[in-house]
Amino acid sequence: MTTGPEAPKIPAHIAVIMDGNGRWAKEKGLHRVRGHEEGAETVRRITRECTRLGVKRLTLYAFSSDNWKRPAHEVEFLMALLQRYLAGERREIMENRIRFRTIGRRTGLPDEVRREIDDLVEVSRTNPGMVLSLALNYGGREEIVDAARRIAEDARRGIVDPAAIDEVTFGKYLYDPGAEDPDLLIRTGGDVRVSNFLLWQISYTELWVTPVKWPDFTVELLREAIRDFSARERRFGGIADE
Ligand code: IPE
Ligand code: IPE
Ligand code: MG
């Protein structure tokens, strides 16, 4: 296998905690929501670059199940921005043959947002390119609880034998059962924490944190993260290859 700076290994699945929009805006004397608008531009840039690099799946944390705690006007702005983004990206998504998906709880999302999601998921369903998965109203614990509840229901109906439940069975009850675990998790904004993102899936994911806030995140930084990832040795609990 070729390694080294000339030919970095491209992670098949990159997940991103897009953090720091509010602080980016505040720093400039702007309202927090301006940071979210600018962040949507970064989403476009990074999605395009990941397609170009041959990434198979990009999962973006766009709205957490805990973000409802924010002031109503910010939540409303984010939902409106999301709706605008979904409608506005349709063409780009189709042109780049991206398959669009979401993870998270549908309940709670405004009807208009749900309609845009369903529409985009449906029109892009057979696209052969990168999967773009947006985590919306997403919480890692919620995902595990939702899976456990559905397994329990299936067990009660006799569809699943409780004694036979293993990691593979459990994985089938997660929000996107077809998704491989992320290889690389990037967090912008400098905080070194997971904030309830993909708790089940990141057991052996490589973490990469940058102090750069999401609106300022660039394709160069993405390439730097990928180079760092490339140079790491993943052992999965085993020992290094001789
Ligand atoms: C991330 O930026 C976007 C969302 C959580 C929706 P923040 O809004 O969390 O920005 P900071 O972390 O407050 O700077
Ligand atoms: C994580 O960022 C959620 C998203 C990026 C959508 P938060 O800003 O919500 O996380 P905390 O509050 O800093 O942990
Ligand atoms: Mg934040």
Commentary on this structure:
The chain has 242 residues and is an alpha/beta fold. The protein has one domain (13-231): 3-Layer(aba) Sandwich (Undecaprenyl pyrophosphate synthetase). The chain has 8 helices and 6 strands. It has helices spanning 21-27, 32-53, 72-88, 90-95, 111-123, 140-156, 167-171, 219-231, and strands spanning 13-17, 57-64, 99-103, 131-138, 184-187, 206-209. Strands 3-4-2-1-5-6 form a 6-stranded parallel β-sheet, sandwiched between helices. β3 (99-103), α5 and β4 form a beta-alpha-beta unit. It starts with 12 loop residues before the first strand and ends in an 11-residue tail after the last helix. Bound molecules: 3-methylbut-3-enyl trihydrogen diphosphate (2 copies) and magnesium ion. One 3-methylbut-3-enyl trihydrogen diphosphate binds next to β2.
Helices and strands in order:
Elements: E1 13-17, H1 21-27, H2 32-53, E2 57-64, H3 72-88, H4 90-95, E3 99-103, H5 111-123, E4 131-138, H6 140-156, H7 167-171, E5 184-187, E6 206-209, H8 219-231
Parallel strand pairs: 1-2, 1-5, 2-4, 3-4, 5-6
Helix pairs in contact: 1-2, 2-3, 3-5
Bound molecules: 3-methylbut-3-enyl trihydrogen diphosphate (2 copies) and magnesium ion.
CATH H-level superfamily title: Decaprenyl diphosphate synthase-like
Task: Specify the helix fraction band.
Answer: 40-55%
Molecular shape:
globular
CATH class equals Alpha Beta
Do you know the CATH topology?
Answer: Undecaprenyl pyrophosphate synthetase
Q: Which second-level CATH architecture applies?
A: 3-Layer(aba) Sandwich
Tally of domains: 1
